[in-house]
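Q: Predict the assembly, please.
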Amino acid sequence: MRAIQRLNKGAGEPKGAVDRLFRLVEADLQHVNALILERMRSDVPLIPELAGHIINSGGKRLRPMLTLAAAQICGYQGLGHIRLATAVEFIHTATLLHDDVVDESDLRRGKAAAHVIWGNAPSVLVGDFLFSRSFQLMVETGSLRVLNILSNASAIIAEGEVMQLSAKGNIGTVEDTYLKIIAAKTAALFAAAAEAGAVIAQADELREMAMKSYGNNLGIAFQLVDDALDYSGREAMMGKAVGDDFREGKLTLPVILALARANAEEAEFWRRTMVQHTQTDADLTHAIHLIEKHQALGDTLARARGYADQACAALNVFPDSPMRRALNELAEFCVSRAY
Amino acid sequence: MRAIQRLNKGAGEPKGAVDRLFRLVEADLQHVNALILERMRSDVPLIPELAGHIINSGGKRLRPMLTLAAAQICGYQGLGHIRLATAVEFIHTATLLHDDVVDESDLRRGKAAAHVIWGNAPSVLVGDFLFSRSFQLMVETGSLRVLNILSNASAIIAEGEVMQLSAKGNIGTVEDTYLKIIAAKTAALFAAAAEAGAVIAQADELREMAMKSYGNNLGIAFQLVDDALDYSGREAMMGKAVGDDFREGKLTLPVILALARANAEEAEFWRRTMVQHTQTDADLTHAIHLIEKHQALGDTLARARGYADQACAALNVFPDSPMRRALNELAEFCVSRAY
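A: Predicted assembly structure:
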């Protein structure tokens, strides 16, 4: 609850946008949090120590909430969704630990990243541990279909991360490639988290596909907004370091759009900062200026809104219910947090 | 075949020690190699490029051979063991990629390690990709028990690696802790590889446990010999860098034994080189001298022989057969390669 309140406050969006979803899954989420604590235990003290650092660092538990919500909207009565949601959070946490090593980011959710405190080696290995734990939890659900969905998603996430790495500093990255990257590295887990919740509830194919589509579109909207926030002052309030993507030479949509609309001098600026990777302190400010000048932030957010709308549309196969309304609000929140 | 010939040649053990096992599983192993190539494919070119570098670098395919052999000795007639053996090799390869990042080793199987060529980031991510692929393959076997065995093993491997990391430079590491570490980081996958082969063959519990015990004991013997070779001139022939463990401050059994038998001056030498971690070029030679002086290498290998004997004893639940003899020879080879 605290994490969500903090986020709500930080993003300054209309109060209650995620609270409704949170309240609907709150009881289940408490079980998930208890299971997270139980399963990150190990006789090797460094494991719960490092895992606890990232797991308790105020994450929103958005992905496990999706699993719980999907199971609930599909009328699930069992307990398997608790394990499943925990598995989803463990996969997410494992990728965060590995990402921070890969990106050499010093901050994660406003705290020092694990690899800064303990070094790269334990971050890689504890990530592997959590990843293994997630598969143990899935095995316990007894559902091969769930294992299928989440092992596929894991492979796609890794592919997306490598794709992003290969595209780094590549000024020729186009919107299409960028969308492929974020669909793989972010939306695949959102989609799998939601789909798996429907699968464990033995929903019919139509509802399964609806939840998968909701998760996928929500994930793309979420990442678009995240990438927009990296060039916006607001993100400083959200516990992220400002300008990370810029400094790392990650070609995200705000830059891709600004570059497509750049004059010769501006194109040279992007080439120097993103390809040659020689940056001065003033460059981030200038980058933000160019992105604003060319409406690149507004257009990125407009695209995010489009995906959020598609997410909501996917839910139309379900009759109106408090949960459907809550999921619609979540999609709305994902975009509105940028304003 | 080339990999095994190279190993046989390198280690200089009696010719044919592994050839018999190899011939018995050769047809299956060709299918495994084909499936490895097929499943490491990806639209992201860096993935097969980096994965191919390590997968084609002359590994012995020992672990997948164990799976194939276990399935065969338990009378398996299906095709699931091919997928299973491929999954086992992918888990192994993923841990190698991550280990090299963790250990900062520059050499792997006599070639430049992947992270030296491509950097840490892709090594971590391609490891994650192969790990995910291995679970996809297991899902395809349709066996939840196999998934259970190998997800448990993966968690234990990660725990073992973190344990090893925590023990680094800790001069108080005792033989018991060391055995726990190698049981987790190495023997767990040998045991799981063999057990899973029996499980897919629907062997009775007695045979399942026999194969698990064979794999576990073989794995411990294998790692003991590996750690002995790190202080022996022979290893230079095996494509490993000499003295890696010493330089990294890894307290392996040869050092633990030499330290337990050290006089005050020798203890100070180990403290300086392994804890303070200040080493000169001459120190490795002196370390080898102390290890030889105290019979620590001979005693390490004697323990390895004990585990190899236990591995062979476990096979007694099976009637005599060419495969049982081949597995006995493999255990013998694991120890004899040190001489």
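Residues 1-15 of chain B have pLDDT under 50 and may be disordered. Chain B touches chain A through 43 residues (CB under 8 Å).
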